[in-house]
């Protein structure tokens, strides 16, 4: 039998504040919604502080009891104040953020490695989708520049569909330093551009690749592009001006993945 704990008003209020970026940053916690994403969190090595459930909370609650995570029963109205969805699934997890240093990863990546860097990608759905796609295609790490949307934004977290808990993600990256470190570990720096790059299907991926995807409107910033060893372009067959950055990332990462097989 599951034993629910009573939540105090002060504790509930502190969790409600996590819908705001400044409190997520100061508290070092974030909200995860949805049974699938929460299950991925529960089966990962991320530290979960609490589960908040309504009477609709599903079987996933049992995972929480196995890991001795406090489970609080709240009202539908209370849960709605923390939910970012139109209709929640009756459960929310409060998870502690992870601080990951990219310097610890370059040396430890495999001989054949692909890392992804996002340079100023601002749409939460795009960032979440690229993280999820990176997870699918076996990317070894994802780096978010300081001018990207925040990783722990609820829309980003939801869009990853749990992939956030599978793959190393480095936030607030100082781009120049990261690129210099990558190059020192024999990573080839590759930028994805709309025009005038090497055609993707004619490109032979190197053993170690760092692929950079840029802002939705402006692409990769000039400062970052100046570091590129290679620029690649997806071949165009129709009349569209450009591709959504999430779609472009999926195409390029698929090509790199099959090239490694």
User: Mind describing the biggest β-sheet?
Assistant: 7 strands, parallel
CATH superfamily of the largest domain: SPOUT methyltransferase, trefoil knot domain
The amount of beta strand, in percent, is 15-25%
* Mean pLDDT figure: 92
- The total domain count is 2
Q: In CATH terms, what is the fold-level topology of the largest domain?
A: Alpha/beta knot
Query: Which strand order spans the largest sheet, edge to edge or round the barrel?
Result: 7-6-5-10-8-11-9
Note the overall shape: elongated
Oligomeric form: single chain
What is the helix fraction of residues, given as a range?
Answer: 25-40%
SSE pattern: HHEHEHEHEHEHEHEHEEEHEH
Query: Rg, please?
Result: 20 Å
Structural class: alpha/beta
Distance between the termini: 48 Å
Helix count equals 11
Give the CATH architecture of the largest domain: 3-Layer(aba) Sandwich
**Number of β-strand runs:** 11
What is the class of the largest domain in the CATH system? Answer: Alpha Beta
Low-confidence stretches: none
Structure description:
This protein has 261 residues and is of the alpha/beta class. The chain has two domains: 9-96, Ribosomal protein L30/S12 (60s Ribosomal Protein L30, Chain: A, 2-Layer Sandwich), CATH 3.30.1330.30; 103-260, 3-Layer(aba) Sandwich (Alpha/beta knot). It is 34% helix and 21% strand. The chain contains eleven helices and eleven strands. The chain has helices at 9-16, 21-27, 35-42, 61-66, 76-80, 103-106, 124-136, 154-160, 175-184, 222-225, 245-260, and strands spanning 29-33, 48-53, 71-73, 91-96, 113-119, 141-145, 169-173, 188-192, 198-199, 208-214, 230-233. It has a seven-stranded parallel β-sheet, sandwiched between helices. Strands 1-4-2-3 form a four-stranded mixed β-sheet. Strand 5, helix 7 and strand 6 form a beta-alpha-beta unit. Helix 7 (124-136) packs parallel to helix 11. The N and C termini lie far apart (48 Å). The mean pLDDT is 92.
């Amino acid at each position: 039998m599951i034993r629910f704990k009573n939540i105090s008003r002060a504790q509930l209020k502190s969790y409600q504040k996590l819908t705001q970026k400044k409190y997520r940053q100061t508290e070092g916690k974030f909200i995860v919604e949805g049974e699938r994403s929460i299950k991925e969190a529960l089966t990962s090595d991320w530290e979960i502080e609490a589960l908040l459930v309504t009477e609709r909370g599903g079987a996933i609650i049992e995972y929480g009891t196995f890991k001795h995570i406090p489970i609080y029963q709240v009202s539908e109205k209370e849960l709605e104040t923390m939910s970012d969805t139109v209709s929640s699934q009756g459960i929310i997890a409060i998870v502690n953020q992870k601080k990951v240093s990219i310097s610890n990863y370059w040396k430890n990546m495999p001989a054949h490695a692909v890392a992804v860097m996002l340079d100023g990608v601002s749409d939460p759905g795009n960032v979440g989708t690229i993280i999820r796609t990176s997870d699918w295609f076996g990317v070894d790490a994802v780096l978010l520049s300081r001018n990207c949307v925040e990783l722990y934004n609820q829309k980003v977290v939801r869009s990853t569909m749990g992939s956030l808990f599978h793959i190393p993600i480095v936030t607030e990256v100082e781009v120049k330093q990261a690129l210099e470190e990558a190059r020192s570990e024999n990573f080839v720096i590759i930028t994805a551009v709309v025009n005038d790059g090497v055609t993707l299907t004619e490109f032979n991926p190197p053993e170690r690749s760092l692929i950079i995807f840029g802002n939705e409107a402006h692409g990769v910033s000039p400062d970052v592009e100046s570091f590129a060893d290679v620029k690649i372009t997806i071949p165009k067959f129709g009349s569209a001006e450009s591709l959504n950055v999430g779609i472009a990332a999926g195409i390029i990462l698929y090509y790199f993945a099959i090239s490694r097989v």
